[in-house]
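Task: complex structure prediction.
Instruction: return structure tokens for all chains below.
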Amino acid sequence: MNKKLTMVKVVEQLLIVSSLQMLLTIYIKSAVVPSFFLVWLLILVWDGNIEIGLVMAFLTGLIYDLVSHGTPGSTSIRFLVLVYAGSFLRVERLSYMFVLGFIFSALFFVSFLFEPAKGFSWEVWPMVKYSVIFALINGMMVYLIELVIRRQRWKWKKDYLGMS
Amino acid sequence: MIWFFRREIIFLLAVSFSLLIMGKASRKSAGGIRSGRQVEKRINYDELVAENMRLRKILGLKEKGKYSSRFRIGNVVSVRPHVFPVEMVINKGSADGIREGMAVLSKDLCLVGRISGVSQKTSRIITIFNTVSKISVMVDSTGEVGIMEGGTIPHCILKYISRESKVKVGDTIVTSGYSKFFPRGTRVGEVVNISPATDSLFLNIHVKPYTGTDEVDEVLIGE
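Output:
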């Protein structure tokens, strides 16, 4: 079965993910706000939709900056770098997806607190604590969403081939 | 050949666009001045009332002698990260009389941070959540002076308050006035947790700043 997505499906997913992300960003006033955008982008890329993933990284970054009052374009660059790096990894197993989702999310979180000339803007302990929480939530989301997708694909395949 | 490098081409194009947008956004925020029609659009009755109340408060603050110069009002153009921000950029710079070290207050006149860098049309603010922020503060009820440090969230840590102190949860923390940046009496936060430090004669006091989680779109800059 072809894993590649059609443009309509991508736009549909973008709308759902954007709505969820906006709700979270606006209403959760905590240091850790899960990033649906990052989770979605990683799943897109690891499912083989690299070009779409890169374009969406640019778009979702702009939306994220718009919602969170960041400098427009700054999150796009973060997403693009992560998606580009992720596109070189061949991730098949779900456990690898969780681990890589965790690592990529932690890097994304820490990148907001790092400034080349001044270093990190938080103390090490809170930064590690919150980045681990953020990465764990995102890693779990990558794992669970991919699990659901795979089960669905398997079900379709079974129905199509008439397997019992 | 080009098709073979499509991933790299898309990546480079998207990064270039992002940088272009970032540059444009910085220039736009540096411009800072809205057209008359845009300003007109923003004004409504509620805003006028809120502004009036705010200005009265500022006037009160100036009459008490806390701040010497007139306040400038700046719009926040970027925040990093969006909750418990460590850094902000506002659309007022040296051309508007902003100087490094000036105090930055929220609309409710609570401490946000201080100006750490100024260009002609924009300024950078280091907030109280930043690890480089160390503010001389005072417990309002007891008058004891300590240092409030940033870098820990969601609360800041108040250090060098004696174990014998009568400080209690709920006490208000204000600036002490010993720092050259912040005049005495500006509200900073509230004590939420007190525990004795295991290896010193002082208390570990957690202070919940009044600013941080709510969206800050406008700030007051004074000294």
